[in-house]
Amino acid sequence: MRLRTASLFFIAMLCWYAVNATAGSTEEARLAQRTGKPAGKNCELLMPPAGAGEESGHGYLVQVWPRAKDIDAHYSGCQAVFWTTASQPPRLAWLVEVLNGDPLRRWSADPALRDMSQCVYARGVLMKGSPDLCPVPPELLMPSQAAGCVTAPNPAAHCDYDVEY
């Protein structure tokens, strides 16, 4: 009787492992197939909201929503990155698709940024894309300073960067 119970337990454990191992690889395969514009929270933004994080570089003001520090394990949707100059209105540069706090990929409608759209990650592991073009570990989420730190004439002392990812 003990041997039979132990055998049944062993078979049940093997079945559990096979189902869970397959589920993980199936999920990763599904993630690797993502190619189009992401859908979800903040994925349809056309302009940066008030309170968007700020950064500057190469003559551009970069605005980020939500800030990297506000993306946790409960967040699914997009981090939207906009850029503008003094003479142009903000426009969407790219989206970072996030699933349960895990940044999966960047997407952009800009043809000049299409190479970065081919890289797909799951828990920091490259699932799709060329290792020559896709950084590992990925640095997908854009760190930023608080709103007003770049655009205000006298930025306050609260202008620390998000934690770098």
3D architecture notes:
With 165 residues, the chain is of the alpha+beta class. It folds into 2 domains: 1-33; 36-160, no CATH class. Helices cover 21% and strands 25% of the residues. The chain has helices spanning 2-32, 114-117, and strands at 53-57, 60-65, 77-84, 91-99, 102-107, 120-122, 125-128. A 5-stranded antiparallel β-sheet has the order 1-2-3-4-5. Strand 6 and strand 7 (125-128) form a beta hairpin. 24% of the residues are buried. Residues 1-23 have low confidence and may be disordered. Residues 1-23 form the signal peptide.
Task: Provide a concise account of the structure shown.
Residues 1-23 form the signal peptide. With 165 residues, this protein is an alpha+beta fold.
Largest sheet: 5 strands, antiparallel
Average pLDDT level: 81
Helix content: 10-25%
The counted number of beta strands is: 7
Number of alpha- plus pi-helical segments: 2
Task: Give the strand order of the largest sheet, numbering strands 1, 2, ... along the chain.
Answer: 1-2-3-4-5
Radius of gyration: 21 Å
User: Which structural class best describes the helix and strand composition?
Assistant: alpha+beta
Gross geometry: globular
Return residue spans where pLDDT drops below 50 for at least 5 consecutive residues: 1-23
What is the beta-strand fraction? 15-25%
Spatial gap, N to C terminus: 55 Å
Number of domains: 2
The secondary-structure element order is HEEEEEHEE
